[in-house]
């Protein structure tokens, strides 16, 4: 990822190939894209490159539950198949990739740090030092720093500085958003990817990636919340003044709605999912009592007649779970202290957000303006991948362009972020290949 760093004055931005992997509870998606320097005056705010998708592969997720790997072999197989499909389409071989993470009890903290400058101009090395000083404060036993993002710099008594490089002062300070997660789920995810003979270039929190893809510039600048409702998790991110300032996650998603229908209607799993997608709604309408849906009971004989059930029964089951999930999101947002900063802007995205009536239900419960967000600013996506379910995947493609002031080393990881799993790196993967083949 280091090839995308801000170039020196007079140097041209470089093109390059980037590979991302979205490992979710419902699907595993691998996208290979070419990033090309944007023409002057035509780049979106904070976007230095144009993104052109050249390969994509996705599979139904296996061995995952609420964002956590529960079966290493099945998860590895799904990842291998998704990456292989993307490689075949792009006509190249993947070595390393950027992957998302939503498990591990994500937790946001705001931390301040400062270093002494001695009166000289602020250089990039000084920024790296102050970011590293702040990131160290976020380290805890059995937890790992996922993101260490500068939200604002200060120089002596002056605060609110966006880019201090080249300025003169005695003390450089930084306010940082530190996002941490439990180490074990992250290690298992990296282990699974390493077993597929791939290395992890960087882990990116799902709520951050979704917000990058689904929020427009004005929303991120004025303050907005992005709620990504996936199959097994619901993540929340808050952006203000163009910065990612807070995130959290819930182990509840669209799969829980499906399971409620299975239990409440005694339906088969595949039938419950079909009913949810085709006839499900988060709002009760006047016609629900008259509309009838056919359900094949669990364990019924092939020739047995389906049961006729009013759609109102199904809607009440869905509505109860959706309202419970939204209330949990609302409470977390209010307790975070950023509820007022969000104002009246909420964006829903993720596969489960496509449920009929969900924006209206959210609008009623939150008392805010709500819209359905889809991934923006990427060319070459197939029609099936332009929906809200692929926001996190597209956000991973955007991430390297906006992570200028994130503490990272030459290879995309600084010492703070290096994972002590014993599973990463080229030499480890070569040794695994030798053991498995000889």
Automatic annotation (TrEMBL):
Pfam families: FtsA (PF14450), SHS2_FTSA (PF02491). SUPFAM superfamilies: Actin-like ATPase domain (SSF53067). The keyword Cell division applies. Keywords: Cell cycle, Cell division, Cell membrane, Membrane. InterPro entries: ATPase_NBD, Cell_div_FtsA, FtsA/MreB, SHS2_FtsA. Residues 18-214 form the SHS2 domain. It is a peripheral membrane protein. It is found in: Cell membrane. GO terms for biological process: cell division. The keyword Ribosomal protein does not apply. Self-interacts. Interacts with FtsZ. NCBIfam families: ftsA (TIGR01174). Belongs to the FtsA/MreB family. Cell division protein that is involved in the assembly of the Z ring. May serve as a membrane anchor for the Z ring. PANTHER family: CELL DIVISION PROTEIN FTSA, CELL DIVISION PROTEIN FTSA-RELATED. This is Cell division protein FtsA. It comes from Nitratireductor rhodophyticola. The lineage of its organism: Bacteria, Pseudomonadati, Pseudomonadota, Alphaproteobacteria, Hyphomicrobiales. The gene is ftsA.
């Amino acid at each position: 990822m280091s090839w995308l760093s801000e170039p020196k004055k007079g140097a041209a931005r470089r093109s390059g190939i980037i590979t991302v992997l979205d490992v979710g509870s419902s699907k595993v998606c691998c996208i290979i894209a070419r990033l090309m320097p944007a023409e002057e005056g035509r780049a979106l705010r904070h976007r230095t490159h144009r993104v052109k998708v050249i390969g994509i592969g996705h599979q139904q997720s296996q061995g995952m539950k609420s964002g956590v790997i529960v079966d290493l072999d099945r998860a590895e197989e799904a990842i291998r198949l998704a990456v292989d499909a993307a490689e075949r389409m792009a006509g190249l071989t993947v070595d390393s990739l950027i992957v998302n993470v939503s498990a591990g009890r994500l937790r946001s903290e705001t931390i301040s740090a400062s270093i002494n400058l001695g009166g000289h101009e602020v250089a990039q090395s000084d920024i790296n030092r102050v970011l590293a000083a702040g990131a160290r404060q976020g380290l805890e036993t059995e937890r790992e720093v996922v993101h260490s993002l500068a939200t604002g710099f200060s120089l002596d008594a002056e605060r609110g500085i966006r880019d201090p490089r080249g300025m003169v002062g005695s003390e450089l300070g930084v306010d940082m958003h530190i996002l941490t997660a439990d180490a074990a789920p992250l290690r298992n995810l990296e282990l699974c990817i390493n077993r597929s003979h791939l290395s992890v270039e960087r882990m990116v929190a799902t709520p951050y990636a979704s917000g990058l893809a689904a929020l427009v510039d004005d929303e991120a600048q004025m303050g907005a919340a992005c709620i990504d409702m996936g199959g097994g998790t619901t993540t929340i991110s808050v952006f203000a003044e163009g910065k990612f300032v807070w995130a959290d996650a819930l182990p509840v998603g669209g799969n829980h709605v499906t399971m409620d229908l299975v239990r409440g209607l005694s339906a088969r799993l595949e039938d419950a999912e079909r009913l949810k997608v085709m006839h499900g709604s988060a709002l009760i309408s006047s016609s629900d009592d008259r509309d009838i849906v056919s359900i094949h009971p669990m364990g019924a004989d092939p020739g047995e007649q389906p049961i006729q059930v009013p759609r109102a029964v199904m809607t009440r089951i869905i509505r109860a779970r959706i309202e419970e999930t939204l209330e949990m999101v609302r409470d977390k947002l209010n307790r975070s202290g950023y509820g007022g900063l969000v104002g009246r802007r909420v964006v829903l995205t993720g596969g489960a957000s496509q449920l009929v009536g969900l924006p209206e239900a959210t609008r009623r419960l939150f008392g805010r303006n709500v819209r359905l967000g889809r991934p923006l600013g990427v060319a070459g996506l197939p029609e099936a991948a332009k929906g809200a379910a692929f926001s996190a995947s597209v956000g991973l493609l955007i991430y390297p362009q906006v992570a200028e002031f994130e503490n990272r080393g030459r290879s995309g990881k600084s010492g703070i972020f290096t994972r002590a799993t014993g599973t990463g790196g080229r030499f480890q993967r070569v040794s695994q290949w030798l053991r498995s083949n000889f």
